[in-house]
Design goal:
heterotrimer, A mainly alpha (about 70), B mainly alpha (about 230), C mainly alpha (about 250), A: about 70 residues, mainly alpha, 2 helices, C: about 250 residues, heme transmembrane transporter activity (chain B), transmembrane (chain B), cell membrane (chain B), transmembrane helix (chain B)
């Protein structure tokens, strides 16, 4: 361990704003890209399911009418 | 009755393309003159924006002249394929039996003859206005003549990629300007070296090397880009 | 060999294979990034010259490496798409470009922030930072060009050509900028090039670089799979797939 305590780690020997902002931006971008990828996938699947359901309903109605 | 086959050799096609483009461009004189006026205008803006101090202007003149010439070339790119695209003759060019890279190379040659070369000839005149030392005028013109040929070649790739788009103007500069940076560095470097009394030969050699590379690769990229723009 | 390549290029086959691979890459990325971060932030010794600000290296260097690798990957995918017309390559290219731009931004931002304690200013026209900035513009160009076309195919092809042109130019830009830089400001303090970095400093860096790569691969696989769902949504197998998927319904 390069630091004596947690506060020393957070202070980064006086360089805290630089170290933490650089790490923060990197972490934020990685997290955002994961969240975006997940949301995108879920939305696409939901859309496909909705379309399937709609088509199924349509074909059922057609058989009913006949 | 004897049927005379039209001559279809590559040299014939290249010569015909050059002649046609030259004639068309010389008929629309405004499109040839506008980049030159733009160049002069931008150079006029700098002393007004910075200061009329000749010592200061002389120091930054190489960079100013090169950046202004580069922007003037970039502005002239849009007309390179635009009118041919609009009247359909670009499609004819694609259908020609001759290799497309050779034909587009002759179009780019005309573009350089009517923008890059006049800019290079005009630059020393503007150099006087920026109090650029007299020794560097020859290098200024030479570096611009060499460099603007590469600018035309690289710019033509961007122009070919965006010719099918309705509002390609800003996009074209976004695509092309980053690729211009090496040429700007060596071109302005050559003039700076001449101002300082050093030999500009290494810079000019590097500009020549860049031109050789652009000549080798760009025609194929332009041809591919045109096919994409026309055929989708 | 050809059969294999064409099989790999078929979205259906890729979808099945990547389903098995993706979780592993996500797991590896998570483990490596957590280990590397803790190691780099808390356990690696501080630099004798720069103190603790040097810990920025653990995000700056991986991001910079990824920024370059992504452009190379973009060009390779573009080449494959143009030559063999494999649609999958273009789907990958479409998702790689924004991530590459993001990594370039991270490298630029962390470099600028690092500049404050080392150079005393936010921005120095340092060769690496300058060519990174130019690369960011190249990424913007590729992304903008793809979006500018009405037809997806034309946009994809145009972006592929531009990526190839860009990848030829990047080394030229890099060297010219480096040369320009040494001419104008000799002997600046370079950020990362230091001889003989001790092992307990570069080992966490290696872990971070590997972690970023795994993250990149995992993200590309995941988003390419989404891209397949989007573009192939008319295909029977994609429709069936959605029905079997419980996760989408909430």
């Amino acid at each position: 361990m390069a630091f004596e305590s947690l506060t020393a780690l957070l202070a980064m020997g006086g360089h805290a704003p630089y170290v933490w902002s650089a790490w923060g931006v990197a972490a934020a971008l990685l997290i955002v890209s994961v969240a975006h990828a997940r949301a995108e996938r879920r939305q696409l699947i939901r859309e496909l399911q909705r379309r399937n359901r709609r088509e199924r309903n349509l074909s059922e109605r057609e058989t009913d009418e006949r | 009755m004897q049927v005379v086959e039209p001559r279809t050799g590559l040299a014939v096609a290249v010569r015909a393309t050059i002649k046609r483009d030259l004639t068309l461009m010389l008929r629309r004189r405004g499109e040839v003159i506008n980049p030159l006026v733009f160049f002069a205008l931008v150079i006029t803006l700098f002393p007004l924006g910075i200061s009329p101090d000749t010592a200061l202007l002389a120091e930054i003149a190489p960079g100013l002249l090169w950046v202004a010439a580069l922007l003037a070339t970039q502005l002239s790119l849009d007309v390179l394929f635009r009118s041919d695209f609009d009247d359909g003759s670009l499609e004819q060019l694609l259908l020609a039996p001759q290799p497309l890279p050779a034909l587009v190379l002759s179009k780019v040659l005309v573009h350089w003859l009517l923008t890059g070369l006049p800019l290079a000839v005009m630059a020393p005149l503007l150099g006087i206005m920026l109090a650029l030392p007299v020794e560097s005028y020859a290098v200024l013109a030479l570096s611009l003549a060499l460099g603007s040929a590469s600018l035309s070649l690289i710019g033509a790739i961007g122009a070919a990629l965006t010719v099918g788009l309705a509002r390609g103007g800003v996009l074209l500069s976004l695509l092309v300007l980053p690729l211009y940076i090496p040429i700007l560095i060596f071109g302005a470097g050559a003039v700076q070296a001449a101002v300082l009394g050093a030999s500009a030969a290494p810079h000019l050699a590097l500009l020549g090397a860049l031109l050789a590379m652009a000549l080798m690769l760009a025609p194929w990229a332009i041809a591919a880009a045109l096919r994409i723009s026309i055929n989708g | 060999m050809w059969a294999f390549i064409h099989k790999l290029g078929s979205p259906k086959w890729f979808y099945a294979i990547s389903a098995r691979l993706t979780p592993w890459f996500w797991a590896a990325a998570a483990v490596l990034l957590v280990v590397g971060s803790v190691w780099g932030l808390a356990f690696a010794p501080s630099d004798y010259q720069q103190g603790n600000s040097f810990r920025i290296i653990y995000v700056h260097v991986p991001a910079a490496i990824l920024a370059q690798s992504c452009f190379a990957a973009l060009a390779v995918a573009g080449g494959i798409y143009l030559i063999w017309k494999i649609k999958l390559a273009d789907m990958a290219a479409a998702v790689i470009a924004p991530f590459g731009a993001a990594m370039t931004f991270v490298a630029l931002f962390s470099g600028a922030v690092w500049g404050v304690p080392t150079w005393g200013t936010w921005w120095v026209w340092d060769a690496r930072l300058t060519s990174m900035l130019i690369q960011l513009f190249l990424y913007f160009g590729v992304i903008a060009l793809r979006g500018a076309f009405a037809s997806r195919d034309s946009g994809a092809k145009a972006a592929s050509v531009l990526a190839l042109v860009g990848v030829v130019n990047i080394p030229i830009i890099k060297y010219s900028v480096e040369w320009w830089n040494t001419l104008h400001q000799p002997a600046t303090f370079t950020l990362t090039e230091r001889p003989a970095m001790p092992a307990d400093m570069w080992l966490p860096l290696l872990v971070m670089v590997l972690g970023f790569y795994c993250f990149f691969i995992a993200l590309t696989l995941t988003r390419t799979r989404s891209e397949i769902l989007r573009r192939e949504s008319a295909k029977r197998w994609v429709r069936d797939l959605a029905d079997g998927h419980a996760g989408g319904r909430r």
